[in-house]
Q: What sequence folds into this?
């Protein structure tokens, strides 16, 4: 696992080096028209106001596949971005074009996720280092904004981070890594006062059922009226799926799970259980749709209606997918289907 993490970190760094914006140049026409000179001047001005994303370079003393190298990447990933006197403009943040900032943020999140994959609920040291890196990123952003309070750097960058880490439709969403960022936002002098309550609420919701935490138990009824509970399920891994009948996105997730080659053997050997829960009130609609769910899954509904009203869970959108270990501790929370299935495929291959 450590070798794989190091290789993927190196790949992410290569992406950083390759996706920075290139200075624009004038066209190659040899014409001397006024329009040509104007275009050349515009291109030169644009080139002087933009730069590639400054990729982090790991000193050779740390090697390439060591914990020290990984820590260096996490600690220094954003150093070059926040250095210098570059300005934030309508199409760039600190001189780096918006699309390049987003690409390199995506690469950074990939590194964070690899740190989480290298962790377990019993050894969370790499995960904690990744969270500390996010806190450090925020402190760098805050310091840069305080140095020039008229700039829109803070506003623009926090919007991008929220888009990637907290938007329920983002394929890179991860509340565990948004948590240290939004907690800092709630307390920062750079945050507008009318936004603090919203950020405190987001932080409180992100703190529920974080990586390594044991989720709350809940009761359900199946189609035959039999009662059960989450904690009564015995398996090395439990996939907890919150869905609605007739939901197209839910159907697509179900199809993806059914088509994954590792799912059936993991279930047949008792290593994996899948529990599919409906949390709303239209129970008859759920009963009518029940034949569409895989029979080998545990399909039930929250007959006490505690999950939709809190119940220790933050179900921001349906569908929502969790992966739990044998002790019902969180491995993945509201995770993209591809991430969950890739994790299970790796478990199956071990």
A:
């Amino acid at each position: 696992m450590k070798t794989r993490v190091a290789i993927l970190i190196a790949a992410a760094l290569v992406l950083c080096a390759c996706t920075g914006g290139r200075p624009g140049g004038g066209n190659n026409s040899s014409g001397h028209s006024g329009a040509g000179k104007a275009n050349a001047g515009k291109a030169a001005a644009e080139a002087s106001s933009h730069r590639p994303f400054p990729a982090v370079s790991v000193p050779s003393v740390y090697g390439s596949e060591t914990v020290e190298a990984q820590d260096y990447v996490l600690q220094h990933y954003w150093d070059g971005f926040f250095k210098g006197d570059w300005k934030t403009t309508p199409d760039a943040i600190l001189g780096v074009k918006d699309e390049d900032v987003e690409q390199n943020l995506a690469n950074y999140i990939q590194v964070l996720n690899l740190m989480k994959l290298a962790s377990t609920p019993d050894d969370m040291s790499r995960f904690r280092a990744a969270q500390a890196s996010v806190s450090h990123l925020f402190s760098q952003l805050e310091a840069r904004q305080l140095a020039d309070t008229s700039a829109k750097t803070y506003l623009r960058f926090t919007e991008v981070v929220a888009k990637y880490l907290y938007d329920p439709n983002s394929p890179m969403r991860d509340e565990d890594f948004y948590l240290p960022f939004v907690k800092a936002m709630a307390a920062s002098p750079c945050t507008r006062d009318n936004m603090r309550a919203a950020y405190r609420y987001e932080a409180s919701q992100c703190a529920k059922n974080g990586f390594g935490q044991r989720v709350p138990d809940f009761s359900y009824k199946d189609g035959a009226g039999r009662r059960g509970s989450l904690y009564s399920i015995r398996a090395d891994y439990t996939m907890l799926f919150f869905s609605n009948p007739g939901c197209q996105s839910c159907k697509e997730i179900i199809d993806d799970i059914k088509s994954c080659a590792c799912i059936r053997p993991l279930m047949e050997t008792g290593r994996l259980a899948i529990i599919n829960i409906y949390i709303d009130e239209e129970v008859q609609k759920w009963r009518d749709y029940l034949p569409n769910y895989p029979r080998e899954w545990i399909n039930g509904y929250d007959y006490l209606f505690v999950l939709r009203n809190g119940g220790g869970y933050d179900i921001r959108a349906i569908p929502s997918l969790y992966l739990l270990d044998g002790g019902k501790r969180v491995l993945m929370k509201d995770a993209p289907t591809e991430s969950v299935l890739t994790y299970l495929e790796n478990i199956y291959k071990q």
